[in-house]
Write a structure and sequence with these properties.
Strand order of the largest sheet: 3-2-1-4-5-6-7
CATH architecture of the largest domain: 3-Layer(aba) Sandwich
Number of domains: 2
Radius of gyration: 23 Å
Largest sheet: 7 strands, parallel
Number of strands: 13
Structural class: alpha/beta
CATH topology of the largest domain: Rossmann fold
Helix content: 40-55%
Number of helices: 17
Oligomer: single chain
Distance between the termini: 19 Å
CATH superfamily of the largest domain: Glycogen Phosphorylase B
Length: 445
């Protein structure tokens, strides 16, 4: 009988999909389970032949007591304070884990770096083989290099540690101005220390230089990207392990657009350069912004004899664009991205790590327009330019002429194609599935 392995993912599709790479490597020998907080992700996971466990979204050390008491139909400062003192979130989450372990007794648990504080409670339950996975570049700040979200090398950004034991909001000034909130925050920080101590961990295990999630020094972390995409190998910390492009070459797609298959044969016979444009699996901004950008691409198509394939990930947006689309401008809800990239000459994307990795996989130069400036997209765009595997632009302010000039540069200057193919070759030489599988298993006890 196979042993079980559990993945604890943040409720983010672009985190779950890359983690399938590790799951696929290990599924030969283990049963794979995913702990998720939303039924929305169940079909995606089950279509990939993995099992799902639904759980709460409560995590220790993150100040979730107010949400916890509200869920239990309580409110007010006193109940909030009482919940912190009673460590309600810790107890509830630990109870969930005890029930899961009693049923599955997993050989190993892989925790999304953006759900990292679950590690504390699992350590307290004396569980072995606890690891982190990260679909993004390293989230730690290393001196001399931009952090993951920074769009330049100007070093004008302030360090903002996500260490739950520290806060700039606890001060005499805030105590006078907002006494209730400051005292609650102070109590929360005191009990965060108690949570660590109760679970057999030193405060020193918390990293001060992780600005996007709570980092734990010394706990193995598997990054689902190649180290070659970082600015330097100096960024790698001793407990970090890079797994290359980490792409499943035969992904299981959801709800593909049937019109795409009707057009694809015609598209590849046209023999014009294909410009593929997609903005990822999740976009929370106003739809009009995407619509306005794609309108600019229609204007670009009027000037350049190219074929455009647009994947909107939205039926409504697709319908709006189709009313304005012209010849050789194809619009779909969802397409099999790897199949399109295999034939594409340029990939216009938002700078998500999944998109960039797939572009490198097929050696397609990139034109990056970051949408979410809070996480890795801007930093990824900087890395694309740094490695000379593409260009980047401003999603709002670039006009059709700006986009035309960038597309011409990518098509006419062989540098970008040569650089991305060289990077592709380096990565293919450094990583392979068997090597990655053995690396991961070498950490099992």
């Amino acid at each position: 009988m196979k042993d079980n392995i559990i993945f604890i993912s943040a409720p983010i599709k672009s985190h779950i999909i890359p983690s399938f790479y590790i799951a696929n490597l290990l599924s030969i020998e283990f049963n794979i389970y995913y702990i998720v907080t939303d039924v929305y992700f169940v079909p995606l996971i089950e279509k990939n032949n993995y099992k799902v466990i639904l759980s709460s979204g409560y995590r220790p050390l993150l100040g979730m007591e107010k949400a916890f008491i509200c869920k239990n139909k309580k409110k007010g400062t006193f109940n909030h304070l009482l919940s912190i003192i009673n460590q309600d979130v810790d107890k509830f989450r630990k109870k969930e884990f005890k029930e899961i372990y009693k049923k599955l007794n997993p050989k190993a648990v892989f925790i999304d770096m953006f759900s990292s504080t679950d590690y504390v409670l699992l350590h307290g339950l004396e569980k072995k083989n606890l690891f982190f996975f990260n679909p993004m570049p390293s989230t730690y700040r290393i001196h001399g290099f931009p952090v993951v979200s920074e769009p330049d090398f100007l070093n004008k950004y302030y360090d903002v540690s996500r260490n739950p034991l520290k806060s700039t909001k606890i001060s005499l000034k805030n105590l006078i101005k907002k006494p209730k909130n400051t005292l609650l925050l102070l109590l929360q920080f005191l009990f965060a220390r108690k949570t660590l101590k109760d679970n057999g961990l030193s405060e020193k295990i918390i990293a001060d230089n992780n600005e996007y999630t709570v980092g734990f020094k010394g706990v193995p972390e598997f990054l689902l990207i190649p180290i070659e995409f970082e600015f330097s190998e100096k960024i790698k910390l001793p407990w970090q392990n890079y797994l290359g492009l980490s792409i499943n070459e035969k992904p299981i797609y959801e709800d593909l657009d049937i019109e795409y298959y009707e057009d694809w044969t015609e598209i590849v016979q046209i023999k014009k350069p294909i410009i593929y444009c997609s903005f990822g699996t999740f976009y929370s901004g106003p739809e009009d912004k995407l619509f306005n950008f794609i309108e600019k691409l229609i204007d670009v198509r009027k000037e350049l004899d190219l074929t455009f394939i647009i994947s909107t990930n939205s039926q409504n947006l697709k319908n709006r664009i189709k009313k304005k689309a012209i010849n050789s401008f194809y619009v779909y809800n969802k397409v099999p991205q790897l199949q399109v990239l295999k034939k594409a000459s340029i990939y216009i994307c938002h700078g998500g790590m999944g998109s960039i990795k797939e572009s490198i996989f097929y050696g397609v130069p990139l034109l990056v327009y970051p949408l979410d400036l809070n996480y890795d997209q801007s930093g990824n765009g900087l890395k694309v330019v740094y490695h000379e595997i593409g260009l980047r632009g401003d999603f709002i302010f670039d006009n059709a002429n700006d986009i035309i000039e960038k597309i011409k540069e990518l098509l006419n200057n062989n540098k970008y194609s040569q650089k991305i193919k060289k990077l592709q070759k380096q990565i293919n030489t450094s990583y392979n599935d068997n090597k990655n599988r053995e690396l991961i298993k070498s950490f099992f006890k």
